[in-house]
């Protein structure tokens, strides 16, 4: 009887171990199929207030409204952009949205305690969302998952967990295969089989479509390739895989725009443009050709900046001489209020009515603007 009891205990122990092992295997499989999808922070409740330089201030990465940490929605509307930020206790929390007026593109970010969790861009009817690795509080962020959708097509590539999903015309693809930076599957359209490859590499999101003789046939003929999204990354970002992201710097940049002469909202951030001040009629007036010349410099910069940074069209730079590219590049510094040391540019921009050189340091550009300058410098060589 004693031996029988021991045998029963041993058997029970073995069954318990087996169940535990099966449970662990099931959990491992579930983990492998999880997406990096995060719990999106709720947008804080509070008043909606238009951004202005009288009431708002950024101090030590806190957004202050009349001296105290703000909670609510901050809206803004500048010559270039419009949108909003949600803030909780002085920190970016929840959604933010920026609408680029010249290109018509839209960007949405999700923040938590000033840390960006994801962002999506909407261009030409295509929405692409980049989700960053969890628990990453550094300035450099690593993409863990990419989602793209347009019309009835949708794609998911989970780089961190090597999982993926493809839907074309609302139908799920079969034979899903996931590699380190791509997911592929087979779909049937109009009686023919197609292999779809959705991939992300160095900021570019692409879709490739191959026609197959049959579902199992390895014969593939490329019939279409589309660039769905292209982020401009610096060489260091490409080699390391980390993207340098702005957080509260975005809001600071927009505040700077509000303070520039010629924008719709006058502020006291820097000395006002004397030509924009209401003065008696005895003040000298500019003729129309001078006004057009001043407008042309800024208009050219805005057009080139939009093409290069928002549309990834660097080919536009080939239409300018090296000397002209130098003027375009320095127009950005002039627009920011940089005080030129180079006599060539100092003399040129001092004749512009909108120019007001007040900053000795050239560290006045945000990360995106710095990338723009580097791109042009490469073409000036």
UniProtKB/TrEMBL annotation:
Q: Does the keyword Signal apply?
A: yes
Q: Where is the signal peptide?
A: 1-19
What keywords sit in the KW lines?
Signal
The segment(s) forming the YARHG domain are 294-381
Q: Name one Pfam family in it.
A: YARHG
Matching entries from InterPro entries are given as: YARHG_dom (IPR025582), YARHG_sf (IPR038434)
The keyword Transmembrane appears for this protein? no
Protein name in UniProt: YARHG domain-containing protein
């Amino acid at each position: 009887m004693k031996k029988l009891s021991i045998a029963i205990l041993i058997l029970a122990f073995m069954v318990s171990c087996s169940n535990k092992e099966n449970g662990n295997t099931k959990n491992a499989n579930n983990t492998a199929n999880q997406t990096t999808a995060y719990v999106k922070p709720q947008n804080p409740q509070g008043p909606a207030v238009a951004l202005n330089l009288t009431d708002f201030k950024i101090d030590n990465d806190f957004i202050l409204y009349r001296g105290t940490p703000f909670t609510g929605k901050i809206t803004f509307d500048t010559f270039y952009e419009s949108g909003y930020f949600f803030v909780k206790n002085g920190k970016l929390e929840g959604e933010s949205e920026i609408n680029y007026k010249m290109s018509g593109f839209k960007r949405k970010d999700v923040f938590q305690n000033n840390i960006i969790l994801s962002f999506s861009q909407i261009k030409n009817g295509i929405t692409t969302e980049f989700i960053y690795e969890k628990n990453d509080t550094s300035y450099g962020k690593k993409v863990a998952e990419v989602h793209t959708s347009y019309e009835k097509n949708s794609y998911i590539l989970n780089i961190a967990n090597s999982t993926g999903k493809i839907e074309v015309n609302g139908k799920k693809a079969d034979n899903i295969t996931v590699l380190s930076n791509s997911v592929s599957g087979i779909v049937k359209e109009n009686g023919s089989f197609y292999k779809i490859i959705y991939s992300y590499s160095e900021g570019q999101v692409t879709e490739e479509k191959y026609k197959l003789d049959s579902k199992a046939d390895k014969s593939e003929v490329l019939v279409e390739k589309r660039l769905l999204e292209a982020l401009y990354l610096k060489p260091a970002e490409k080699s390391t895989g980390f993207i340098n992201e702005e957080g509260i710097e975005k809001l600071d940049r927009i505040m700077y725009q509000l303070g520039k002469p010629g924008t719709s909202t006058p502020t006291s951030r820097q000395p006002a443009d004397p030509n924009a001040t209401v003065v008696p009629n005895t003040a000298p007036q500019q003729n129309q050709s001078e006004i057009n010349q001043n407008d042309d410099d800024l208009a050219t910069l805005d057009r080139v900046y939009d093409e290069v940074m928002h549309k990834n069209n660097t080919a536009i730079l080939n239409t300018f001489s090296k000397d002209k590219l130098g003027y375009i590049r320095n127009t950005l510094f002039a627009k920011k209020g940089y005080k030129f040391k180079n006599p060539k540019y100092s003399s040129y921009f001092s004749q512009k009515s909108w120019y007001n050189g007040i900053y000795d340091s050239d560290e006045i550009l945000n990360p995106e603007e710095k990338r723009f300058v580097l791109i042009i410098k490469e073409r000036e060589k």
